[in-house]
Amino acid sequence: MIKHKSTILNQLFYSEMKALVDKFNKIKENEILEIEEILRPIKDEDIKSYLINKPKKLSEIIKENKKMKLKRGEIELFGFVNSEIEEVDISKAKEYYEELLAIDYVEIGEYIIYKTGICLKEYAYSVFENRLSDEFWVEKMFSKDDVINMWVNEITKEQALEEILDNTDLEEALELYPQYALSINGIDYKYSQVEE
Q1: What is the per-residue DSSP string for 59-107?
Q2: Which residue of 57, 58, 160, 196 lies most exposed, with the fewest beta carbons within 10 A?
Q3: Distance from chain centroid for Cα 72
Q4: Can you say how many angstroms the Cα of residue 10 is from the centroid of all Cα atoms in its chain?
């Protein structure tokens, strides 16, 4: 019930409620089954809640699922990326999902989603290779004594890179501050904003 004691407001309230009830009563049985098929298997309540509260995103999933059966992981990643990172369509989320399965991580804008417990060497290699070409990052990563020592000992960029990859906590070196992202097929994934 509304808190204002107004006959007109009460009539508007009941009119809106009736329209809402009528809208849901008009949903066809097959549409109900499609919605339940999408939402029921999702274990993550935040992702499920996001999709329930974003009817356009849910509708996009239903339309795509009619064309080609979606994997639960694709749906969950779609919901997670849209709710936490950036707005994407289902086809982009499917690409991200395939990349995540193939190499255990995916870069999305200023974020990385990666499998918990994986070695981030491949990702770190590309990041550090770029950083070692940038004066700002060299100063941030190495002390002046380290740089002098590398120069005196004729340590190449490649050798310095291997040293970093082999002897460093990569999450810390990459300045990742991971948080739990989601679980797909029983595998947990983290995500973090990436320092540019």
Answers
A1: HHHHHHHHHSPPPHHHHHHHHHHHHHT----HHHHHHHHHHHHHHSEEE
A2: 196
A3: 15
A4: 43
The Cβ-side half-sphere exposure at 131, using a 13 Å CA radius, reads: 21
SS3 helix, strand, coil % of the chain, rounded to 5? 60, 10, 25
Tokens of 91: 């086809």
* Residue 30, burial from CB neighbour count under 10 angstroms (0-12, 13-18, 19+): exposed
CA atoms of 196 and 194, how far apart (whole Å): 6
Residues 6+ apart with CB under 8 A from 12: none
Going by the DSSP 8-state scheme, the letter that residue 183 receives in this structure is E
Phi, psi of 70 (to 5 degrees): -85, 150
Give which of 112, 58, 46 is closest to 83, Cα–Cα: 46
- Strand-pairing partners, residue 179, are 191
